[in-house]
Design brief:
The chain has 175 residues and is mainly α. 40% of the residues lie in helices and 6% in strands. It is globular and about 45 Å long.
C-alpha cells in the first residue's frame, strides 16, 4: 500500500506481553501525543485471543498467567473503546470477507483499496519474528484463513464482560 503526501502510519502491537503491560495503562497518553490519530479497533472473540495466547506461550507461563495477561489486555481495550473515536473491525469479519472489510478501513483512512493488501503471501516481508503476533503456519500460508476455535476447556468466566460488551454473547442468554 502506498500513502501519498506527508501521511505517516504508526502502529502498536498490543499482543506482546511486555508491550501490553507497558501500554495498557497508557493509552490516554498515546492519544494526547497523536491527537489527529485515526483509530482502528480490531476485536476478536476473547476466547480465540486466549487460545492464541496459550498456543504461543513460553513453557514457563502457565494457563492462569496467560489468562491474566489476556484479561489485562481485554480490560484495557474495554476502557479505550468508549473514549476514542474510530472504526471497529471484527477479526472474524476480516477473515471471512477481507476485501469488504479492508475497503471499509481504507475508506475510513482516506486511501484507495489495493488488492495486494489482502494478497500478502505474494510479497516478501522478511523474517517472521517469534512473539510478534502470529508467526506460525497460519501466517506462513500467505492466505487469509478462517478464524480458529477458542481454547480447550471452555471460556473462563473472567472473559465474559468482553464477550458481552463486544456482542459475542447475549447478556440475557449468557451463551
Amino acid at each position: 500500500m502506498r500513502l501519498r503526501g506527508r501521511a505517516r502510519v504508526w502502529y502498536v502491537s498490543l499482543l506482546l506481553p511486555t508491550t501490553l503491560r507497558l501500554l495498557c495503562g497508557r493509552w490516554r497518553r498515546i492519544a494526547r501525543c497523536w491527537p489527529a490519530a485515526r483509530y482502528i479497533f480490531l476485536l476478536r472473540h476473547p476466547a480465540a485471543i486466549l487460545a492464541s495466547a496459550l498456543a504461543s506461550r513460553r513453557p514457563d507461563h502457565g494457563r492462569d498467567e496467560v489468562t491474566d495477561m489476556v484479561v489485562e489486555f481485554l480490560d484495557a481495550v474495554r476502557e479505550t473503546l468508549p473514549v476514542l473515536t474510530g472504526i471497529t473491525v471484527r477479526y472474524e469479519d476480516l477473515v471471512s470477507d477481507p476485501r469488504a472489510v479492508m475497503t471499509r478501513v481504507c475508506g475510513y483512512l482516506g486511501v484507495p483499496f489495493e488488492p495486494g493488501m489482502i494478497d500478502y503471501g505474494r510479497w516478501d516481508h522478511g523474517p517472521l519474528l517469534s512473539g510478534v503476533g502470529d508467526f506460525g503456519e497460519r501466517i506462513r500460508s500467505g492466505r487469509v484463513l478462517p478464524a480458529s476455535d477458542g481454547p480447550a476447556g471452555g471460556v473462563p468466566p473472567r472473559l465474559r464482560p468482553a464477550l458481552v460488551e463486544w456482542g459475542y454473547v447475549d447478556a440475557e442468554v449468557g451463551s
